[in-house]
């Protein structure tokens, strides 16, 4: 009978060690003696540089709005910031890094910041079409920050009408990571001019706020893997594991007595 109890004991230890603890669930924990005060002021990310497939909202204003009507979508009254409207009226960066702008034609914006694109469009308008006396004013914005979430999180494509979003905000907008999701190794698949790269970030560690991948960029893919505990089929809590162990113990004991009486 001793061998059966040893077997039960081993199962008991394995299942209880598979519980999902607070260390697996809590974001931005102070680890290795590092505190929030030790981190100091977290610097804002550098200005984003436009990539292929980004969508831009560009609007031209002047004292006489009739002069700039051809550069702006017909009937627009501020609603153009909505993602759906900008799909038809915005400017998508093509595979060569260009946008097609009325009158001016192709303008290369690949690798430029929003401020640099604004200056570039204003310069070209004054050079090719307007005089200084027109007092034109150009606004350039990203048409929302689009990103994708997949895995142990609300799966889908999301658009936030913000210029700057960190990964925790992005995950919260997607419904947050499931209890069985691995917060210690979240994958950020990021687009670069030469292709895509995969980056890793541990969201349970407060040092994640210093990571260059803490703030997401347009077209990022956030992939959350499942914990090994889930893959093994273990319970998420001690009570769930206890129920599993109880069932196993009951089965083993019943089997033992049945075989003993044969």
Automatic annotation (TrEMBL):
UniProt keyword Transport present: yes
Transmembrane portions of the chain: none
Entry keyword annotation includes Transport: yes
UniProt KW keywords: Signal, Sugar transport, Transport
Family annotation (InterPro entries): Poly_export, Poly_export_N
GO molecular function: polysaccharide transmembrane transporter activity
Any Pfam family the entry gives: Poly_export
Location of the Polysaccharide export protein N-terminal domain: 44-140
PANTHER family hit by this protein: POLYSACCHARIDE EXPORT PROTEIN GFCE-RELATED (PTHR33619:SF3)
Protein name: Sugar transporter
